């Protein structure tokens, strides 16, 4: 039973062909670019498309071609503090631009990264004719054998070191930490502390130790902190209150450092707030350099000296490798660059 009205019928490809005076195939060639079409004919087809409000059925097209011209970007769920880092929002934006440049849409979705859930998502992507998956798994180990068995190309992003059988890329975290810490030491600061995760195998921690050792200065204090703004603020309060002896191992120091290398921009923003609340001036009392190169560093006060990850280059490489005919399992490590601003003590003309 109806109320006497019905939704207007959607225009079809055949309607467009009839109005433009061409075959159905010519409409497809014009819209998909799969074969040359005379300019005048293409103009008639496009005019008919606009007049009728025709929209191609992308799902049907995907079934016919075996491709949805879409990539998936799999990220941690919102409860995971990793993906709340503004750096990763900027990374997602550059990935989308890189995919669009290749004619692909980018579909972003979150997961807990439990092995069974990741595998289920891959199977869902395959059923939807997704062309490849960009995975931001953080420190979560992936079952590459099971994922490869789905048959989709995939690449793991933000990876510090190679994992056998996995195509991956990331920034050289250790080298970035060396560069930032060395720059602080070149200012003449006699001690450089580190604020970051309590993990002696973390590349930024290792780079900080190496830079201090190379300069012949004691490393410390190490202040454990979650890689979040609240984590940075809590660490900053401990440092300001001379309670910096909170790390593990031989690098605790037990004193307020003259300078700090902080593992991420957003953690450094938390440290800046804590110092402001305690009346500690940056860089006059404690200088700071951080890591990531996000817009958050540029708009902090004072502006944060930071090691910038090359997100544009990494995004282009990730998409190119994902769509390549010849798949590889290489790990690609990208260099970054140190961006100098006021927080480290550089003069204003470098801001």
Can you summarize the main beta sheet?
A: 6 strands, mixed
Number of helices: 13
Shape: elongated
Helix share bin: 40-55%
Low-pLDDT runs of 5+ residues are 62-66, 244-253
The structure class reads alpha/beta
Portion in beta strands? 15-25%
Descriptive account of the structure:
With 351 residues, the chain is α/β, with parallel strands linked by helices. The chain contains 13 helices and twelve strands. The strands form three sheets. A six-stranded mixed β-sheet has the order 7-6-8-9-10-12, with helices on both faces. Helix 9 links the parallel strand 6 (192-196) and strand 7. The longest helix has 16 residues, at 86-101.
Summarize the structure.
With 351 residues, the chain is α/β, with parallel strands linked by helices. It is 41% helix and 16% strand. The longest helix has 16 residues, at 86-101.
């Amino acid at each position: 039973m109806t109320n006497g009205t019905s939704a207007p019928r959607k225009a079809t490809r055949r309607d467009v062909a009839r109005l433009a005076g061409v075959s159905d195939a010519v409409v497809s060639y014009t819209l998909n670019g799969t074969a040359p079409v005379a300019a005048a004919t293409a103009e008639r087809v496009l005019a008919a498309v606009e007049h009728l409000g025709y929209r191609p059925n992308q799902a049907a097209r995907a079934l016919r071609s075996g491709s949805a011209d879409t990539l998936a970007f799999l990220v941690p769920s919102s409860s995971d503090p990793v993906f709340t880092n503004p750096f990763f929002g900027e990374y997602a934006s550059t990935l989308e631009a890189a995919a669009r440049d290749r004619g692909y849409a980018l579909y972003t979705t979150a997961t807990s990264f439990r092995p069974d859930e990741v595998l289920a998502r891959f199977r869902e992507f395959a059923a939807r004719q997704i062309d490849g998956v960009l995975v931001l798994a953080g420190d979560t180990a992936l079952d590459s054998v099971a994922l490869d068995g789905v048959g989709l190309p995939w690449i793991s992003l933000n990876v510090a070191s190679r994992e056998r059988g996995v195509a991956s890329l990331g920034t050289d975290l250790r080298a970035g930490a060396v560069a930032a810490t060395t720059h602080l030491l070149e200012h003449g600061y006699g001690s450089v502390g580190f604020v970051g995760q309590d993990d002696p195998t973390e590349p930024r921690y290792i780079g900080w130790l190496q830079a201090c050792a190379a300069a012949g200065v004691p490393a410390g204090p190490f202040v454990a902190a979650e890689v979040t703004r609240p984590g940075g603020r809590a660490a900053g309060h401990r440092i300001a209150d001379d309670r910096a002896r909170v790390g593990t191992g031989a690098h605790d120091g037990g004193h307020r450092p003259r300078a700090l290398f902080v593992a991420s921009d957003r953690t450094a923003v938390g440290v800046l707030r804590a110092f402001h609340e305690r009346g500690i001036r940056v860089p006059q009392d404690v200088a700071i350099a951080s890591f990531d190169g996000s817009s958050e560093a540029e708009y902090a006060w004072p502006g944060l000296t930071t090691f910038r990850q090359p997100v544009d280059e990494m995004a282009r490489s990730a998409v190119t490798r994902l769509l390549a005919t010849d798949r590889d399992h290489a790990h690609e490590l990208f260099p970054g660059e140190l961006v100098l601003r006021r927080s480290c003590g550089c003069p204003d003309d470098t801001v």
